[in-house]
Amino acid sequence: MSTTTPQIESLVRREYKEGFVTDIDADTLPPGLGEDVIRAISAKKEEPEFMLEWRLAAYRNWLTMKSPNWAHVDYPPIDFQKISYFSAPKTDGPKSLDEVDPKLLETYEKLGIPLEEQKALAGVAVDAVFDSVSVKTTFRDSLAKAGVIFCSISEAMQDHPELVREYLGSVVPTGDNFYAGLNSAVFSDGSFVYIPKGVRCPMELSTYFRINALNTGQFERTLIIADEGSYVSYLEGCTAPMRDENQLHAAVVELVAMKDAEIKYSTVQNWYPGDEHGRGGIYNFVTKRGACRGDNAKISWTQVETGSAITWKYPSVLLEGNGSVGEFYSVALTRNMQQADTGTKMIHIGKNTRSTIVSKGISAGRGQNAYRGLVKVLKAADNTRNYSQCDSLLIGDRCGAHTYPYMEVRNHTAQVEHEATTSKISEDQLFYCKQRGLSEEDAISMIVNGFCKEVFKELPMEFAVEAQKLLEISLEGAVG
Amino acid sequence: MTTAVEHYVAARNALVLPGTGLDWLDELRNAGTRRFSEKGFPTLRDENWRYTNIRPILKQNFTPVAVLEGSAGRTEGLSQHLLPGLGAYRFVFVDGHYVQELSDATGPARGVVAMPMADAVTRGLDGVKTWLGACVPEDRGGFTDLNTAYIEDGLYLHVDRGCHLEQPIEVVFISTEPGGQLIQPRNLFVLGENTRAHIIERYISPAGRSHLTNAVTELVACRSSVVEHTRLQEEGMDAFHIGGVFIRLHGDARVVSNNAALGSMIARTNLHVALQEEGACCHLYGVYLGNGRQHLDNFTQVDHRAPKCTSNEFYKGVLDDRARAVFHGRIIVREGAQKTDAQQQNRNLLLSGHAEVDTKPQLEIYADDVKCSHGATIGQLDDSAMFYLRSRGVDETTARGLLTYAFAADVINKISSAPVRNHLEGELGRKMFGVGRPEELS
Amino acid sequence: MNTMLSINNLHASVQGKAILNGIDLQVNPGEVHAIMGPNGSGKSTLANVLAGRDSYEVTRGEVLYNGENLLDWSVEQRACEGIFLAFQYPVEIPGVSNIYLMKAAVNARRKYRGMPEMPAVEFLKLIREKIKVVDMKEEFLHRSVNEGFSGGEKKRNEILQMAVIEPTLAILDETDSGLDIDALKIVADGVNSLRSEDRAFIVVTHYQRLLDYIVPDFVHVLAGGRIVKSGGKDLALELEKAGYGWIEIAPVAEAADA
């Protein structure tokens, strides 16, 4: 009954069911990066002049930056000249549903994301981003009645330039890091959300990202602003076709929560992870950061990361307002040759700020899984509290689990606590479940789901079910 | 203008070190010089040094001290700083050189070789040739290379198979006037199979002048040996102290490492433990007490290279005034090191609003049948405990003192030698509260 | 009547050390067998070998269950065939709710028999009925398996699972250890309510106390890895008076040669 390596090997086989390619005419820029490319992107999107300047400044700064090498991930250097920075299906942006190419509708249907409102999940509005552009945003009218703006960021630049100008780059500056710099220069689309004062967003908002075109990078940019006393729950899902080449996804997400506002941001990331030999898969190099600008603001990140060849992301919270709260709940699974280096940064700036970190890493096959997190308490941050719990589960003897927490405390009234454990699934738990009649695979799946429970319970209902299923499918065979 | 690296290389080349001309030794030292010239000193950009800026150390060009000619004068009055009642064999080094008058090397037991490193290398003893430099890992860093370039004096200890040393061996490094010295002790302790020993290494600078101590100790614990290594860093508040401790454990060996950092303006210890063979077990206890503007950095790395090894690490720090402490605790479990049990705890107590702590525990695990955990906390004295004591009539200062003692005591109490424990407790009181050891503890 | 369980000359070892040195035991449907003996006599080993824990190696002998070779089966197959082990030390499984585990266990058995899953409503009804037997609050159903349970709660939870799963052969491994008298009665009531013509029990215990409440048909005394004495329920009382000191422990070497 012990989990032997050959058993595990045999079990790491499952089809990536989102791995199909949509055959659609696309308007794609030739590979290459330079100021002309940036001008072309900006022109295609008919952006206001300030945006072009902003992009060019970001690009010039990016040229002086080096790609980060501190993460526990390994990949050959990326040739940024071989990537195409813009690809859009040949339709003129999001229109009424009748004008959206039926092939696109079919694609999303196949992914389980119907874009017809009558078919959609009740209470979830979707912005569908296909390669470089948003193809459809649902329920816009009903949201508008509540005063909520939910549209693609390209539209926001046209319709709400003052908001974009004020907040874009205010949380993640263009020079923040190498990939955020690149994103600032070339981002093509993404979602924009504004929740006015005192409004509780009447439905879950969600964006579904799909990479389709070959040799194309996806650089989306999401900006969410929750004005005083408002609330929004936002979900994000991602998939890509199976291809032998690696594809780059370098997104930036910025959240701004004003006084008493709350943003709950959930991600189920299922980009194509590559095959069992590590061929293909998405490089998921993402910068996500939220700022609690006002007192008692709250930002909560929940992520379930099962896809991508390499994941490099640290959804973070700047706790500026007094009494503000940051949370990070994460499940990251790596199997086959996947690598993940993920975690969070909680920067305590205001007084009485609190943060909670719960991270569950699962490594199987030859997967490498690292938690990296920073808890920083600045001088003026009196009476802050942080609690971090990082648990790793190892399945098989060729994977790795790593924990790198950083705690920097500049205020003596702070209380910072970190705990981490690493272990394999206990033989006693397995025996117990099997004695009750469960197969080994079911027993492991059950135990792993239990291990992740603390995180799953933070997800909105539909996502929790999807995450659990995703984990089960990913483990199918990943365990013996 | 010459750089710091050029200065230290030039100073090295100007020295005639003991044993110069012996091939094996020249090779070892020259390799150190070469690597040091290439890599230089660490910077904040090195992940392992991200919280410790050594630029203040590089502002001054420290110079090596020639062998003391008729040590009279410089060693006068130094004996009063030695720990009373240890009952140990004692080896005293002043400004890096062995001083016989202060030492008590009479008669370590049969089967024990203990002599100044300067003699040991000159004689080319087998144990020295085999082990000198052998425990130093690849990622040794510039300071260790600098020390290797200068290998000169320190203690060489070799304990034959089966010998049990009843009394501890004490090695004391004292730095004196006038300041500005570069002191680079190099120790090598080889504990044979089935041996037992307690080695106490102590660094003091009663004159309180600025100098740089850059010490390296290698310790080899052969099969089934039981070794305790206690390191007391109590240099003056203007001193700079860098200490490398490289420990290698063979099958079923058991090592207890006690590491206390009290002194120096900037102090850093690099403690590397390699669990080389099955069944090895180590306990690492550390305490760091900082006040004033001290910067105390403890870097520890436990490397599980073989199955069924156990490591247990417990470091505690108390920081007052504007002191800053850094703790790095890295645990690596290599592929194939199944049935590893590795535990680590780091706890920090901040007594002042200006004290700072950076702590960075790390687990890197490449085997699945393991039990590993680490925990870290940073906080202040427990309010409810303070309240409890005060409600029993204990004044606030005393209550703070008592709770701080209690906090540090569970690490200090791991040291087997009572005189060392008492000394540390006394120093804790003097240093943090300006009082002696409280009655309640005696 | 067909024998349900037939253990013949069973030898087993743990990490190379012989623990069972030739066990012979026949269990028929409807019977309750008590296995008693001093610490280290091999009682728990016997229970674990029957359930199939892989750290125990069977070195000789056979175990037939309804005429089939039990030792050939995996742990879960034995479970699905109706063997239930109430653990001496029930393990905690964080994040997995008690009710979820029981539902999975019930459905695993149904699947094994080619039956459809039990409808949720029916299952809830079943569990609400059974939980009364062990006098547990419903909140226990939604807590993680055994996590944060007291010793007594863990043992009651084992009996609850047994009641829900309705095994053919239930093995209770020192279920009484660490229980106060009230908890002991609850556990015994749970067992007694399940006694039936087609179900058998093997009750492993160190003390006679439990047998005041679960009256056995047979009592066997295990020592040195063998059954050294068998008798009716009175044997337990004898043991209670005399202790285990009088038992002549068969030398291991002799047993191994047998």
Concise synopsis of the structure shown:
The complex is a heterotrimer of chains A (480), B (442) and C (258). Chain A is α/β, with parallel strands linked by helices and 480 residues long. Chain A has helices at 5-11, 35-44, 49-62, 102-110, 140-145, 153-159, 161-167, 178-186, 427-435, 440-456, 461-475; strands at 26-28, 87-89, 124-130, 133-137, 149-152, 191-195, 204-210, 221-226, 231-239, 246-249, 252-257, 262-269, 281-292, 298-305, 310-313, 316-319, 325-334, 339-348, 354-364, 368-377, 385-395, 400-409, 415-424.
Global geometry of chain A: globular
The number of helices of chain B is: 9
| β-strand number of chain A | 23
Largest sheet descriptor of chain B? 11 strands, mixed
Please mark out the parts of chain B with pLDDT under 50 across 5 or more consecutive residues, or reply none: 437-442
- What is the gyration radius of chain B calculated from CA atoms? 21 Å
Largest interface (C-beta under 8 Å): A-B, 34 and 37 residues
- Which ranges of chain A are low-confidence, i.e. pLDDT below 50, for 5 or more consecutive residues? 1-13
Strand content of chain A: 25-35%
User: Radius of gyration of chain A in whole Å, from Cα?
Assistant: 22 Å
User: Please, what is the average pLDDT of chain B?
Assistant: 90
Outline the structure in words.
- The complex is a heterotrimer of chains A (480), B (442) and C (258).
- Chain A is α/β, with parallel strands linked by helices.
- Helix content of chain A is 23%, strand content 35%.
- In chain A, the strands form 3 sheets. In chain A, strands 5, 6, 8, 10, 11, 13, 15, 16, 18, 20 and 22 form an 11-stranded mixed beta sheet that branches. In chain A, strands 4-3-7-9-12-14-17-19-21-23 form a 10-stranded mixed beta sheet, covered by helices on one side.
- In chain A, strand 3 (124-130) and strand 4 form a beta hairpin.
- In chain A, helix 2 (35-44) runs antiparallel to helix 3 (49-62), helix 3 (49-62) runs antiparallel to helix 8 and helix 6 (153-159) packs across helix 7 (161-167).
- Chain B has 442 residues and is α/β, with parallel strands linked by helices.
- Chain B folds into 2 domains: 2-277, no CATH class; 387-442, no CATH class.
- Helices cover 21% and strands 37% of the residues of chain B.
- Chain B is built from 9 helices and 21 strands.
- The longest helix of chain B has 17 residues, at 23-39.
- In chain C, helix 6 (151-165) runs parallel beside helix 7 (181-194).
- Chain C has a single domain, classed as P-loop containing nucleotide triphosphate hydrolases (Rossmann fold).
- Chain C is of the alpha/beta class and 258 residues long.
- The longest helix of chain C has 15 residues, at 98-112.
- Chain C has helices at residues 43-51, 75-80, 98-112, 120-133, 139-142, 151-165, 181-194, 234-242, 252-257, and strands at residues 5-14, 17-27, 32-36, 56-65, 68-69, 83-86, 93-97, 144-145, 169-173, 200-204, 218-223, 226-231.
- The A-B interface holds A 70, 72, 392, 394-424 and B 47, 51, 335-336, 338, 348, 350-380.
